[in-house]
Structure formats: structure tokens, C-alpha cells
Amino acid sequence: MRFDFTPKGLMTIRHLRFRRLWISVGVLMLLVVAVSSIIALPAPVKAVMLHDKVVHTLAYAGLMGWFSQIYRHDLTRLVLALGLVCMGVAIEFIQGMTPTRQFDVLDMVANTSGVLLSWALAYTWVGGTLAWLETQFCRTVLRT
Questions:
Q1: DSSP tag of 6
Q2: What's the DSSP call for residue 40?
Q3: Which residues fall within 8 angstroms of residue 80, CB to CB, at 6 or more apart?
Q4: For residue 91, what is the DSSP state?
Q5: Cα dihedral across residues 112, 116, 121, 127: positive or negative
Q6: Which of 73, 80, 126, 144 has its CA 20 to 30 Å from the CA of residue 101?
Q7: What is the rounded CA–CA span in Å between residue 21 and residue 11?
Q8: pLDDT confidence bin for 44, thresholds 50/70/90
């Protein structure tokens, strides 16, 4: 497998018809993860929450998985991965400054693990799931 780290086609999204929708959903996901990582969680949410590190891994895997399906260029995916890892680290430092949250290096490890997992899966059939779902939707619902 050859990787393309040239800047040509860096932000190209020709394979998706509903680009703006998918990017908007991704930005919303980013906001949900960032805000829910910083605010104090209500007691009922804490009670039903899975193991903390699993939640961190799944959240960041979801973010990387989502954006790596939108942006297929290798250099863009690298920048996304680095950006999400930096976001996870920054949020942990911010949590350490709040009275309701705490700094935890293992959360950073879990966040990074999720990013790396989805980055690797992006190069398998999983990386085409969003495009496949969009195609199926267009065929069945829109009949185009």
C-alpha cells in the first residue's frame, strides 16, 4: 500500500454527496466530546456510564473514524489524527484546572488509542462505510 503525503487534493471530498451534512455532524460530535469532557456530569449519567477508559477510547475512535471517512487523503488523515490527539491532551489539562474534573494521563492514552484504532481501520473496508451508507440511501430513498 502506497501512502500519498503530497498536498494535492488535501481537502477533497468528491466521494460523498452530502458533504456539508457529514462535516456538520462531525463538528457537532467534536463539540459534544469537548463539552462533555469539561462540564460536571450529573449523577445519573455517571451511574450508567461504562468504564471511563472505554468511553474515552470509543469517543475518540468515533471522531477519527467519522472524519477519516470524510477525508480520504493520507496527509489529511495524519493531520486529523495529530489534531485529535492534541485535543485529547489539551482537554485533560483543562480538566485539571476545573474543580469538578481531574487530570489523568491514562485518559490521554485511551484517547490516543481510539484515534490510532480508527486511523488503522480507515484503511480497511470500514473506512468506506459512510460512502456505502450514503449510496444505499440515495438508491432506496432518493432513487437517484
A1: S
A2: P
A3: 64, 67, 68, 71
A4: H
A5: positive
A6: 80
A7: 16
A8: low
Show me where the domains of the chain are located: 19-142
Return the C-alpha cell found at 60: 475518540
* Chain centroid, CA 116 distance in Å: 11
- Under the banding of pLDDT at 50, 70 and 90, the label for residue 1 is low
CB burial of 62-81 (b: ≥16 within 10 Å; e: otherwise) equals: bbbbbbbbbbbbbbbbeebb
DSSP for 99-142, written as a single string = SS----HHHHHHHHHHHHHHHHHTTSGGGGHHHHHHHHHIIIII
In 10 A of CB 100, how many CB atoms? 9
CA 12 to chain centre: 18
**In contact, 26 and 70? CB cutoff 8 Å:** yes
CB 86 within 8 A of CB 136: no
When computed from its CA atoms, the radius of gyration of the chain, rounded to whole angstroms, is 17
C-alpha span between 86 and 78 (Å, rounded)? 12
State how far the Cα of 144 lies from the Cα of 140, in Å rounded to an integer: 8
Three cell numbers, residue 16: 460523498
